[in-house]
Design goal:
The chain folds into two domains: 170 residues, no CATH class; 146 residues, Reverse transcriptase/Diguanylate cyclase domain (Alpha-Beta Plaits, 2-Layer Sandwich). It contains twelve helices and five strands. A five-stranded mixed sheet has the order 2-3-1-4-5, with helices on both faces. Strand 4, helix 12 and strand 5 form a beta-alpha-beta unit. The relative contact order is 0.09.
């Protein structure tokens, strides 16, 4: 398992709000045209139908305004006011009939999702107070509740709209949670697993190897002369090199391997069910591919790799210490090579 490298994680807190704005505008246009047509041609309610068509026109205007300006905040306020206008006009023209009051329930989710908690609270609170005041003032003249065809249609429409809004909200919430969960275990620059996630995976693979007696190989891969790249060409070029190496490595490792950025210019590769001989072959193949695939106008790009095999239950820190010891030897013996860890036996 490994994450495919990405240039930058797509972190955009306004993405869901923009999507909701577009969805609501489309739904508002479709429903306004549909309800307006029913009011005009089926119920001969020309005044209410006019309000519906005004609402449809407003949704089109807001859509083109947002497409032209990308001003999400102002477009959200325009949409909220358009909804409030439509609801107010409908309630007043219907003289507070029960089926018109139910449309007020559409406002809270829209106001909170589009405007945020604070503005949504104020807008919703004011709208509710105004609705209650209207009912109190017109209480003697309120019509007797009658479940006509129009009443049933209005209730059905409100329930459908609320279902669509909350369905979008739940999908948006899950998407945001998954994105946050992914970012918590991913290195922002390379898109590979980060150090914290690698710590967990390394410990888990060591325990699995100990229980199943399956071999396990761990390797540290270090970009040679990386400090020279940063010093001569700047950190932007250094970041680009790290991304290129991450892409090349992720394409070449096996699907069962775990690849991540250990820190700085170092990468960690965990290879379950892999013997030392297989790990050394894989490491040399990765070293060669990085040298062949990443061409630079100046110095060639190479890797030094330290490899160790886990043969018993051992602490993760000791595994890293072994791989780092082998990497240190690879660096000291000329770089651009693979060295495996060997126990230093005391001289007798």
């Amino acid at each position: 398992m490994q994450f495919q490298p990405i240039v930058r994680p797509n972190v955009d807190p306004k993405r869901h709000q923009r999507t909701l704005l577009r969805i609501v505008l489309v739904v508002m246009f479709v429903f306004s045209v549909l309800i307006g047509s029913l009011n005009v041609f089926l119920f001969q309610a020309y005044q209410v139908g006019t309000y519906n068509f005004i609402s449809a026109a407003a949704s089109v205007i807001i859509w083109f305004y947002y497409q032209a300006t990308r001003n999400l905040k102002f477009a959200s306020w325009l949409l909220t006011f358009a909804v409030i206008f439509n609801l107010s006009a409908f309630i007043v023209s219907a003289k507070g009939a029960a089926y018109s009051i139910i449309w007020v329930t559409v406002l809270p989710p829209l106001a909170f999702f589009l405007l945020g908690r604070r503005a949504g609270s104020w807008v919703t609170g004011i709208a509710f107070v105004a609705t209650i005041a209207f009912l109190i003032i017109n209480l003697p003249d309120l019509p007797v509740l009658a479940f006509t065809t129009g009443t049933i249609l209005n209730i059905t429409e409100v329930l459908i709209i609320l279902w669509l809004i909350f369905r979008f909200y739940e999908g948006s919430r899950q998407s945001a949670y998954q994105e946050l969960e992914r970012l918590s275990v991913v290195d922002k620059l390379t898109g590979l697993y980060n150090r914290a996630k690698l710590d967990d995976l390394l410990e888990a693979n060591i325990h699995l190897s100990s229980r199943t007696s399956l071999p396990l190989v761990v390797m540290l891969l270090d970009i040679d002369h990386f400090k020279r790249i940063n010093d001569q060409y700047g950190h932007v070029e250094g970041d680009a090199v790290l991304q290129q190496v991450a892409v090349t490595l992720s394409k070449r490792v096996r699907s069962t391997d775990v690849l991540g950025r250990w820190g700085g210019e170092e990468f960690l590769l965990i290879c379950p069910a892999t013997r030392l001989s297989e790990g050394l072959q894989l490491a040399d193949m990765l070293r060669q591919h990085v040298a062949d695939d990443i061409k630079r106008a100046t110095d060639p790009l190479t890797l030094s790799i330290g490899v160790t095999e886990v043969c018993r239950q051992i602490q993760p820190n000791d595994v890293i210490r072994q791989a780092d010891s082998a990497l240190y030897k690879a660096k000291n013996s000329g770089r651009n090579r693979v060295v495996h860890f060997t126990e230093e036996r005391p001289v007798t």
